[in-house]
Amino acid sequence: MTTQTAQSKRNIVAVVPAAGIGSRMQADKPKQYLHIHGKTILEHTLSVLLAYPLIEKIILAVAPNDPYLPTLPLLTHPKIQVVEGGENRADSVLNGLKAIKSAVQNAKNVWVMVHDAARPCLTHQDLDKLVQVADPQGAILAIPATDTIKRALHNLQIQHTEDRSQLWLAQTPQFFPVDTLTQALEQALQQGLQLTDEASAMEFAGFRPHLVAGRSDNIKVTRPEDLALAEFYLNRTK
Asked: Residues at site: Positions MEP for the nucleophilic attack (predicted)?
């Protein structure tokens, strides 16, 4: 764990990949542009990050010619920089990292928080716990698995029950040194690896990121039923 001195030497930038279409939501627009309490999910997410004092800048990676982006008032905020996203999450994140590295002379002390655009219920309490980690292997928010987990065969019959005592469900933000994560993502993409989060790239590179216990209400809006749940959680802060 870090000391206050170590924390003070770091510059923290957030990257928010928001170029996906969210097909599982079965909506007429990408899920990050669906509305809760009169604001888009993306605006809720960005607002949490903007209000966190240790985050100096936010890089938002969006699809080329995104027609919904100009409708967001937050785009005029001086802390937000928009870059073009890629074909998949890893490409979008990598574009964000390259934007960070091109904007600073020395990225050695820059750390990045990569956060899902569709996780609007993030709390500053979880961010406080995450930034305590100074190990260069980085850290992610996650929650211990509590449900019984089955491994399935191809025909959807149960193969066996997993031991959940060592299983965690990954969340975001995921927090790493910019240089290290950039190299890990580039190597993973060159090898054609399928990445579902940034920690996967770090694992393939031989690192063992820390698990930081987060809150179960830090949900990712993925399916239609998630929208009502996110609305419920966000309503508690109104």
From this structure: 164, 220
